[in-house]
Amino acid sequence: MRNPRKHGAASGGSHERGTSAPGVSGENADGGYNAGMAVFSYIIGGIIVWSLIGWGLDFVWGTRWIVLAGALLGAIGGFYLSHMHGLTSSRKNAGERPAAGGPSEDGDTNAK
Fold first, then answer.
1. Which ranges does the record mark as transmembrane (predicted)?
2. pTM over 0.70
């Protein structure tokens, strides 16, 4: 059986990495950063797009509040998309295994 932690050797990498952030491939060393940037992009992109739609509707209909509703809708929609893509869960790894929650396997080497 193939060891899932030794993916670096199969892909030509010279060193092993631990687990990566949810939704990000294991070959990428900046998994948490990339997942965070994806969440940020979804939320900010949703706010910008829906605010512009609300601004246009405000202009056409002569109102002032639809732009704010659009910004709120965009933020909620961006968070929903990032959640549906699995980028906001901190308790799962890329392989859909639960994250380690107990003591480390190396024993009490860091205990004081």
1. 39-57, 63-82
2. no
